[in-house]
Amino acid sequence: MTNANEAWPDLPYSAWRDTSATLHLWSQIVGKIRLVQSPWLNHSWHCTLYVTPRGLTTSTIPHGERTFDLTFDFVRHLLVVSSDDGVTKEIGLYPRTVADFYAAVMAALSELGLSVRIHEMPNEIPDAVPFSDDLTHAAYDPVYAERHWRALVQIDRVFKLFRSSFLGKSSPVHFFWGSFDMAVTRFSGRTAPLHPGGVPNLPDAVAQEAYSHEVASAGFWPGSPGVEYPAFYAYAYPEPEGYAEAPVGPDEAFYHQELKEFVLPYDAVRAAPDPDRALLDFLISTYEAAADGASWDRAALECPLGVPGKPRAV
């Protein structure tokens, strides 16, 4: 890839809405496998996915004394299940129902001697049906599945650069399959008011544990009902007074009154002369709005952006 527009591919939500919905559910199946096999880690960090040079992976998952992983390969359009004995199973990504995909994944794990049982009801999706009953979602456009992953590669890279300028507690840069978004979150170190919960098909206890501490969070959605285009977002919990009116950049960013979040259309970043700088402007300015509004100890929590091969000065 030789220019910014190729590195940041066109990703109109309307062109792949059905594929996105199917991939969302497929990713939930894979993520739930990691979820049930891994010890709970604060803020549900134990069950997320991570960007790779070919797609999205669970990373290593324990199974008793054995280990395995699952990786979406959006170059070859496969889900690859790899076990610690060197045996792999490949499951094709093509137009197929969620029920069929679920059955294929469970069969592959069983054949590898790695049987797993998950809760079949999708999370964070209203009016959901169990995976094994879902004969509706069956779209897969390989062109847009690959474009989405290629966008995530760039977003992952810039998010990690942004993460390098914070000394306090910070999440990994990771992909949440529940909400089908990439995210990175900073913490002030203070506890937060009890979250009210109410997320569709998600136990309140999970949301309350996720938001147990004060945060400034940013992320990326490929599009969803309510925001019918790919977009970056940023929010604070709890939201400090004056946050919505804070000046943020770049010029295309705005505060979404219904979502109670700042939003920056992906296309504004893609079209910018320097997409990295445009995205960093959004990440930094929205974080500063949260940190200043809530009186975070910024001097103790921040440092310059990291430079490859150069230790941070102390």
Q: Strands, helices and their partners?
A:
Blueprint: H1 4-7, H2 13-37, E1 50-51, E2 55-57, E3 61-63, E4 66-73, E5 78-83, E6 88-92, H3 98-111, H4 142-163, E7 174-176, E8 181-191, H5 204-210, E9 213-221, E10 231-237, E11 254-256, E12 261-265, H6 266-271, H7 275-293, H8 298-301
Antiparallel strand pairs: 1-2, 2-4, 3-4, 4-5, 5-6, 7-8, 8-9, 9-10, 10-12, 11-12
Helix pairs in contact: 2-3
Overview of this structure, please?
- The structure is a single chain.
- This protein is of the alpha+beta class and 314 residues long.
- It folds into two domains: 10-42 and 51-133; 142-301.
- The chain is 32% helix and 21% strand.
- The chain has eight helices and twelve strands.
- The protein has helices spanning 4-7, 13-37, 98-111, 142-163, 204-210, 266-271, 275-293, 298-301; strands spanning 50-51, 55-57, 61-63, 66-73, 78-83, 88-92, 174-176, 181-191, 213-221, 231-237, 254-256, 261-265.
- Strands 1, 2, 3, 4, 5 and 6 form a six-stranded antiparallel β-sheet that branches. Strands 7-8-9-10-12-11 form a six-stranded antiparallel β-sheet.
- Strand 7 and strand 8 form a beta hairpin.
- Helix 2 packs parallel to helix 3 (98-111).
- The longest helix has 25 residues, at 13-37.
- The radius of gyration is 20 Å and the shape is globular.
- The relative contact order is 0.13.
- The mean pLDDT is 97.
